[in-house]
Amino acid sequence: MSRSCTNKRGAMSDMQQSENLAISSVEDQRRLAVLIDADNAQPSVIEGLLAEVAKFGVAGVKRIYGDWTSTKHSQWKLSLLEHSITPIQQFAYTTGKNATDSSLIIDAMDLMYSKRLDGFCLVSSDSDFTRLAQRLREAGMVVYGFGEQKTPKPFVVACDKFIYTEVLRKEVAPVTEGLPIASSPTSTPVVNGAADSAPAMPPKVAKPLDSPVRSIVRAIEQGADDSGWAFLGAVGNYLTKIQPDFDPRLYGCRKLSDLIRKYPDVFETSERGSQGSPSKVLYARILGKKTSVKSVD
User: Fold this and answer.
1) What is the fold, at CATH topology level, of the domain defined by 213-286?
2) Quick one: 194 exposed, middle or buried, by C-beta within 10 A (0-12, 13-18, 19+)?
3) Quick one: CA dihedral 168, 173, 179, 183, positive or negative?
4) Domain 30-206 classification at class level
5) Where exactly are the structural domains of the chain?
6) Under DSSP, is residue 168 helix (H, G, I), strand (E, B) or coil?
7) Please, how many CA atoms are within 13 Å of residue 201, restricted to the half-sphere of its CB?
8) Which pLDDT tens digit goes with each residue over 141-187?
9) Beta-bridge partner residues of 272
10) In whole angstroms, what is the distance from residue 127 CA to residue 247 CA?
């Protein structure tokens, strides 16, 4: 009987430890506010977008800003309840002016001063949020940006990390380097009334993608040891710092290691295991730089 009780107490203790670890891991995650500009974001990416946000932390606040009396946001309305996103109404006070930006910025500042959050996810392709991203980072917040590839560069580099929403759709075709990428065409319903009608605008075209080789070489050189090998995790972190919108998925690769392996004439990789651990870590180096000037053989 005593042995049975001891086993039960041991099992309960293990369960308690597992629960405590689970709770602590949740508490250690960043608390994020997801603020969406409905006028400059597409509802087709919301599922992939929230899944991406979950990689960075817990979305404690999810708000979307727009004029919900307008018919142009009808597709967004279908996604709000499904993903528990709070719509914030902002009337268009005058034709041709966007009042949504101001409402989002004011809310972001209020949330920042509440000191309940660790970071923000700004979902828009509008450069008007550039200064907001800068101000949030000055206050110690982590800022993740989400927008289409037409997003102006100043907003992209103002964020700690910027993710292009084209890679978040369910079916993503690999991007061909050096070719322009047309942004997804969206149909805007035309109704009677000046508030909802707008002249047809030609589709914007994203800038051609540069080859990632030069950036990867720079990152490897920055983190390489005397023999030229660099830990791939450090390479990825450095790439994000120097190029916030760097993403292997833009080149049709799921991970950075897959992208590096696409260039076997430039890079080589090596898997290394640590003693007493079954897990392995990946290192990379530049071919032709197997030894540095510091190495002595």
Assistant:
1) Nucleotidyltransferase; domain 5 (3.30.420)
2) exposed
3) negative
4) alpha beta
5) 30-206, 213-286
6) helix
7) 10
8) 999 999 999 999 999 999 999 999 999 876 444 444 444 444 444 44
9) 281
10) 20
